[in-house]
Amino acid sequence: MADKNGKLDLNKLSFSDSVSFYFDRASQFTDTPQGLLDQIKVCNSIYKMHFPVKYGNQVKVIEAYRVQHSHHRMPTKGGIRYSLMVDQDEVMALASLMTYKCAIVNVPFGGAKGGIKISPRQTPPEILENVTRRYTAELVKKNFIGPGIDVPAPDYGTGEREMAWIMDTYLTLRPGEIDGYGCVTGKPVSLNGIKGRTEATGRGVVYALNEVCSYADDMKGLGLSTGLEGKRVIIQGLGNVGYHTARIIREYGAKVIAVAESDGAVYDENGIDPVDLHRYRTEKKSVKGYPKGKVIADSLSALELDCDILIPAALEKQITDKNAARIKAKIIAEAANGPVTPAAEKILLKKGVMIIPDIYINAGGVTVSYFEWLKNLSHVSFGRMQKRWEEKHQRNFIKLVEDLTGKTVSKSKIDMLIHGADEIDLVNSGLEDTMIEAYQDIREFKKRRKNVPDLRTAAFAVSINKIRDSYYAMGIFP
Length: 478
Ligand code: NAD
Prior knowledge:
This protein is an alpha/beta fold.
């Protein structure tokens, strides 16, 4: 980590070193004793496992992890990643980001993360299923999963299907557990999932950016107009997070001018339709040959195109000291975890780029996962009990207004006014409120403490303060 003069070399930091670096930098803006800072920072439990899985007539040994970063709030929570790049350092970094993220958005969990070293796109589904079920069984054996213990969710390379396998394996091994469905979130809606979870991270990114861009002073400082309308956006990664971010940000009037995928990027100054591009990529298994834009072979170079907002939504370490100086975006929204390295951050901040940190901006997924977990524990969907009652109440109110004024309200207006909230309305409303409130906390902290240099430091400090207060409330630290 240190260079030959004993100075911290930002280029040599591993992913978990980077998170520690951000933590240490922010901790000076919190009044937290060193012993407590050490406790907040350290990973509480690390489970590395190896297990055999049949590949045709061969057996392969699979390497996998589950890291519970912080037990200050239980259960712990965090996604499971399938990638050949998975290693202990990466899972530890991602687990610790989860702790800070949950604190920022007031989700009452400690952070965790899981990872399996496997290629999700080059492994046949039946083998992925065996691996997922065996991984879940290993977690059950060690008491590393359960609705009150540790609750996984989707991450890079996993989705509803994998969550359904996890849930099914868990319930098979723990039959009759009444809250068992709450052992994992991100499940299909037809298997006790919640509406809006699939797109929650992307939707949260857009709610957050809408709030970020609503402050005229901040936008003026960046040379941008207020609001998302007309903003030119580049997105890296057209997976779960990137696709839904691209789709939803267009509804706010922004223009997606480039999308960078692993095998090439597509650029069109007039705007790309992400739904159409996604359909093409799903069918052809590549963005290459997409007819409605210019295809750029060097995908990473697309991040350097002129734009207002750059949204890396693929993997960590995409913007480094090698390409940071060439980035032209005014705002970088870290939809992925750790896409900007500390060395790149230094260059970008010097250039005046506003970086919206991962521990805030991609917290929409865990927020809606929390709603799903609550739904599973209460065994009833949001809105089910009150929707009809609300509608009846509104209808009676309109009738009263009509009687008092002698005027008739049109049917279309009545339909609009009486609509009672159902699950998706409540989920999106709770998500929007969460993203707005959390940004206001971070922004206000930065404004109040004049010497806080950037939003990431403010976000870490806000988070550390909240976790510190949980420990104080337990009376563990004086
Ligand atoms: P995903 O597997 O659904 O999609 C990732 C996409 O990135 C894929 O389409 C893949 O082809 C693409 N990609 C991979 N390498 C690339 C490269 N070098 N250049 C361009 N594209 C590349 O994963 P996801 O769930 O969308 O997660 C993406 C990021 O968001 C990860 O960092 C993850 O930790 C983070 N995240 C995900 C969630 C969630 O709810 N899924 C929540 C919070 C954070």
